[in-house]
Amino acid sequence: MEFTPRKEPVIYVVEPYGGSVRKHLPSLPLIYWDDAAVTRGDGIFESLLVRDGKVANLARHSARFVNSARALELPEPQIEKWKEAAELAIADYFGGDEIGEAKCTWTYTRGRASTGHPSAWVVVQAIDKKLLEQREKGVKVMTTPRLWHVAEELPAKTLNYAATMATLRLAKGKGFDDVIFVDPDSGIVLEGATSTVVAVRGNKLRTPAAKGILSGTTQAALFEYAQQQGYRCKAKEITPEYLERCDSVWLVSSVRTAVRVTNLNGSKLKAPDNAAEIRGLLDAALAR
Asked: Is the pLDDT of residue 151 over 50?
């Protein structure tokens, strides 16, 4: 029987200094007016795919979460507690019938200004239907310069996504589904709004090698597995013109997984013969 996603999320609060985890009712408030997540966007997060009751690519997500906390000088997360909270939330969400998918988000903020204690919680919820549709149909993408500064010494997945979301709204107003950011000076490709760019040419997989972009956990898992299957994988400087000449272009991320770029800056990209194979590589990489 096919799993029916729950309408309400499951939330577990994590004690930031390694104490207990506890369930939180989604109908009740969770953070206060003076929490840094609200007043400053000061915090970090990880979005994880839950597939058949298990978090995919957990080790890489955990490592990036710890690194993000370190970069923002937050108290080091007690990862075992975060894993415990995720396991409890997943079990509650699926109710023992752990066949299906969901989205799990870890959020960790600097907390209330009045207490100085961090806020931390885990949420498991249904995957947006729009993301599932994009897996199947692909996305129309426009390239755009990234005009705000990203500190190269701060490789953190932070909550401050306002500029990115504004750019996405602009793109959608022009008839596109997503964006690929390029460096405003050199024009080289950086990353998607919430994804890593992967280009395919024959048995070669390429991803941008550029400063100021966050390393992708999903892309790393894909490259590790694909290399074992005989693909040649590496990071290199990529231009939009290079993408146009490739067999296929993909945006890869934890929850949306692999989404093919079907249109780039108004030019249709032909469907490759091995689209199912590339998607299968990523599914196999995440299942390990």
From this structure: no
